TrEMBL record:
One of its GO terms (biological process) is xenobiotic detoxification by transmembrane export across the plasma membrane. It comes from Beijerinckia indica subsp. indica (strain ATCC 9039 / DSM 1715 / NCIMB 8712). GO terms for cellular component: plasma membrane. It comes from the Bacteria. Gene3D superfamilies: 1.10.3730.20. One of its GO terms (molecular function) is transmembrane transporter activity. The lineage of its organism: Bacteria, Pseudomonadati, Pseudomonadota, Alphaproteobacteria, Hyphomicrobiales. Belongs to the drug/metabolite transporter (DMT) superfamily. Small multidrug resistance (SMR) (TC 2.A.7.1) family. Gdx/SugE subfamily. This is Guanidinium exporter.
């Protein structure tokens, strides 16, 4: 169950990171509220995962999910560059996440 909580926490991290773009510096009310809710949910689910998982592993996987998801959505939603060095780098982060999951 801890890994499911960690996955949800990572997805919420992606939501708040992308949500920040839509808040326009927290000047728009609804996107700002949604972003703050996603932030609280992300930390809350991370806390639940930490009841069982080692803190180093959980934190690295949480930030990795957030980083990979945010880059992928940045490419898709905001037309950020998808050049090979960026994609290789994200692939390495993904390999690290998988490695931590397999060894924990």
């Amino acid at each position: 169950m801890a890994w499911i909580f960690l996955l949800i926490a990572g997805l919420c991290e992606i939501a708040w990171a992308i949500g920040l773009k839509y808040t326009r510096g927290f000047s728009l009310l609804l996107p700002s509220i949604a972003t703050l809710v996603a932030m609280v949910a992300s930390i809350g689910f991370l806390g639940l995962a930490l009841k069982t998982l080692p803190v180093g592993t959980a934190y690295a996987v949480w930030t990795g999910i957030g980083a990979v998801g945010t880059v992928v959505l940045g490419i898709y939603l905001f037309h950020e560059p998808a050049n090979w060095p960026r994609l290789v780098s994200i692939g390495l982060v993904l390999i690290g996440i998988i490695g931590l999951k397999v060894t924990s």
